[in-house]
Amino acid sequence: MSENWVVQNLINALNVWNEKLTEIWKLITQSPQEFNGGGIWAVVLNIHGALQALGYGLLVLFFVAGVMKTCGNIAELKRPEQAVKLFIRFALAKAVITYGLELMLALLDIVQGTVSTILQASGFGTPGATVLPQEIITAVEDCNFLQSIPLWAVTLIAGLCIWALSFVMILSVYGRFFKLFLYTAIAPLPLSTFAGEPTQSIGRSFLRSYAGVCLEGAVIVLACIVYSALASSPPTVETGTAAVTMVWSYVGELIFHMLILTGAIKASDHVVKEMMGL
Asked: How far, in Å, CA of 139 to CA of 154, rounded?
């Protein structure tokens, strides 16, 4: 690595960006069961199992409340078709709570399969790395002390921006995992609302929201693929200009591309909500 501070600052910032992008690429193809060695998933399963008992209690409560609201009198309950309908509703609601975790994991597996298909179709096995061109390194190293002063300011600002975007981007991906954990842990409670006809909309909304969190992975991987395509054609280096102008022009366009990717990842939940009408 060059001994020039300006070059080192830019290279270090780009290395952080590339590391976080590689980490996202790895995380997005990872299941919650594998995340962080599976320790968090074990805790989530314990909470889910404990809340199942409460879910069964709420199941009866919502079922009775739904019967009282939808049936005008006891005579309606004696009708065979009405009794069968209520029995089927209760049995299905109980099955949803009992096998809700398996259903949610099946939906996640479908989305993960979609992500794998997108990656295979894109042809990108790994994310495109962003590197500092040799022309810029040479131009910066040829500058004297006075010429380096504005370069210090430019690279300091650029480095801070790249660092900030890197951590905002990775935090958004980690946030998706934590939402998956929260949805899985608390699932028995909203799923119990399927027992009552007046409250079943809560359960539907919960499942749609969970599906949206799962689909965020597909939006994130699409954003990473688009950025990898951009990284394969980096900004043009203006070799005929002063070093500070060259660095400012190149890094500015680079940060613009990074800002697009970070914004797309951070807004992935809003994109999915618009797609699903949530």
From this structure: 14
Confidence of residue 78 (pLDDT cuts 50, 70, 90): low
CB 258 within 8 A of CB 162: yes
* Distance separating alpha carbons of residues 204 and 200, to the nearest angstrom: 6
d(CA 152, CA 141): 12
Tokens read off for 273: 């909500």
Instruction: Give dist(CA 223, CA 206) in Å, integer.
Output: 26
- What average pLDDT score do residues 114-143 get? 78
By the 8 A CB rule, do 217 and 28 touch? yes
| Contact between 246 and 136 (Cβ < 8 Å) | yes
Confirm if 97 and 192 have CB atoms less than 8 A apart: yes
Q: State pLDDT tens for residues 155-164.
A: 888 889 989 9
Q: Which residue in 271, 258, 226, 263 sits closest to 122, CA to CA?
A: 226
- DSSP-based three-state secondary structure for 175: helix
Burial of 187 (0-12, 13-18, 19+ CB in 10 A): buried
3-state secondary structure of 79: coil
**pLDDT > 90: what percent of the chain?**
10
Which pair of structure tokens corresponds to residue 218?
Answer: 């597909």
